[in-house]
Structures are given as structure tokens and as C-alpha cells.
Amino acid sequence: MGGLxxxxxxxxxPTSYTENLNPVTADVLEAGFIxxxxxxxxxxxxxLPGVRGKERWNILLRGFFSIxxxxxxxxxxxxxxxxxxxxxxxxxxxxxxGVEVEQKMAVKIGLRSVNITxxxxxxxxxxxxxxxxxxxxFGWQQGRNGFGxxxxxxxxxxxxxxxxxxxxxxxWIAEYFTFDGEGIRWGRHYRQAGxxxxxxxxxxxxxxxxxxxxxxxxxxYGACCLAMTGGFxxxxxxxxxxxxxxxxxxxxxxxxxxxxxxxxxxxxxxxxTGIICVKVAAIIYLMDLRYPEMIHSFFGLDxxxxxxxxYADGEDASIGVERDRVVSSNGGTEVESDAERGAQAASAExxxxxRRAHTRFQKSMIKMPKATPREAKRESSQPPSAAxxxxxPETPLYENMGYNSAGDSERVRDLEMTDVSRR
Length: 423
Fold this sequence. Notes:
This protein is α+β, with helices and mostly antiparallel strands. It has 13 helices and 12 strands. The strands form 4 sheets. It has a 5-stranded antiparallel beta sheet. The chain has a 3-stranded antiparallel beta sheet with strand order 8-11-12. A two-stranded antiparallel ribbon has the order 5-6. The longest helix is centred in the middle third of the chain and has 29 residues.
């Protein structure tokens, strides 16, 4: 065969191209998480104009908070900057050479690996392009001492880097993580800290998903899951800071020139996110107890789904009387005392609503229906006590409780018949 198929071939051998080695300039996995988050956020914004009224802003706030929280959990879990260190110094570039080069060295320690970067200017003393980015993996098993096939993953990768002939500063930094004796066990401690911290991060991820689901069902349960999400994030920080290292890692190069390490943005963003989650969950839970109407409106839920119907006698009705109720009478405003309101409510009987699950911290477990337009008009022309004691109101108390469908209308009729029979 000839022509096009013989192009770039010599003596009939397959086409061969030289290697094209490029330095790693970005974390592909981290960039992928950010790109996926941006796509989801953009799609969310596109469909947002279909929501009417002020509910659009509630959905916008809830949606972006949830999307950003999930992205932070994944990015911090796989992030490479839980602990970082950097140094610029003139040091040897390779072994068996007296040439020293001004080099910028950076180390990024994640939960699963260590990233070492080495750069220098183009017109350096070695007349070479110095731009390296090497990653050494911890692995979840410690392995045996040494560099054999049963050694740890980090030690085996370090031995391969030596055979490859990587620059001396990279090998010098990586060697500090291979020591495992006496009090020098930096590699072992960082591996253990990353192992337990990443378990806590993965535990927070399904709790975040569960919180998103429960916020559409029972708000207080969603708040509990959100608080647990923040708790696991904080627990990841505590575990990592506690067992990462008993002796602070410091890598010397010359006398007085030492690379120091400190916490990176992955550590701090996890800590801040955990605190925010716990605080937001506490606010939502307390608002569900004290201001259920407001928080249900924010999440777009029907508040009646947390209530059940029951027939209240005088004693139960007295519990549902609000302490801050202001009664309008003859064009003026009269604030009733607790004793007067209790006496009036004691004589009131009828259908009411109460929460299925309640605690002593709730504002009230009883939901007193607001006066209907017809009833409010009638009450304005007579004293409050007479309006409450009226046994035959024009409309039932639960007229404005949200019964719209045919099934709800049947329940209302059944409740009215029960009311009449008990009277």
C-alpha cells in the first residue's frame, strides 16, 4: 500500500510520535466538581423565572444554599489543600551536580495524597525548563517498612520517582513522608487523619441529600439532618487536627531555611461550612417551633400537614387562646387579660387543629382558626364574650383552614355532623 497510508513511516514501521509531556497546572477532579456545580446552578437559574411572586426569591435562596453546600462537601473531600507549605530558595536541582537554581517549591497535603510542585524561571542556571507537579498517594494501608512490593503505596511511588530521576527538591520533600520509626511518623499520621476525615465527609454527603428531601416533607426533621451534616463536617476537622501529626512537620533545606506548614483553604472552608450548617439548622428548628406559619411559607409547604383535627372541649380550647390576642371592640382596641381569655375559652367548644408532634418549647400545639369574613363582621357588632359563647355561628371555625378539594369538603361535613351530635 502506498500514498496516504505510508506518510510519516520509515521502512514500513508503524507511525511513531515523540512524547508530549506537559506539566499538570490544575486539579482536574476539583475543576470537574466546580464545573458541574456551575452547570446545575445555571440550570436552576434558567427555570427560576417560571415561579411566580415572592416565592421565587425563597426558592432562589434555598436552592443556591443547597447547591453550594453539596459542592463544598465534595470539593473539600477531594481537595488537595488541607495543609500547605511553600518556599522559594536557591538549592541543588539534581544529584551529582553542583549547580544551584532559584526554585519555587510548594507542598499541598490532602486527605488522600501529597502534591509537590517545583518551578523555576526559564533563564535559570541549569538551562532547563523546570516545571514539575508530582503527586504521591497515601493509600489506606500502611504496609511494611521499606520500599518493597509489600510496602505502602507512598513508599513504592517514592522508589519509582527515584528511578525516574525526579529533581532533588521533590525527592527531598517526599522522603519525609516515608519515615516510619521512633517519633518520626509523618506519613502514617497524615494517612490516618485523612482516612478518618474522609469517612466523616462521606457521612455528611448523604445527610445533605436527606435534608433536601425532608425539607419538602417535615421541616424540623430536615433541620435535624442539616445539623447532623454540619456536625460531621466539624467532626472531620476535629479528627484531622487531632491525629494528623504529633510533631509539626518542618522540612529544612539550609541553615535557617525551613519549609513550614499550615492549614489550607480546604480545612477552613469545611470548618466554616459546618458552623453555618449547625446555626442555620438551629434557626429553622426554632422557627418551626415558634413561628410555624412563617417557616412553612418560606419552604412552600402547607402548614396543615403537621396538624390533625380533633374536637376540643372547653379545657382544651383554653390552651389554644393566644396570649397576645388583641380584640377590637366598638372601634377601639382592648387587650384582654389572661384570666378573661381563659374564662371565655373555657366555654368554647368545637373542632380545632393540633400538631401531631409537639414539645414544651413550642409556642402552642393548638391552632386557633382566624375569624372568617362573615364571622368577623358579626363579632364587631357585639361584645367578645357573646361572640365566643354563641352556639350557632353562621360559619364553622375551620372555614378558612384550607379545605378546597371535594375530599376535604366531605371531611368538613362529617366534622359538622359530629359537632351537632355532640352538642
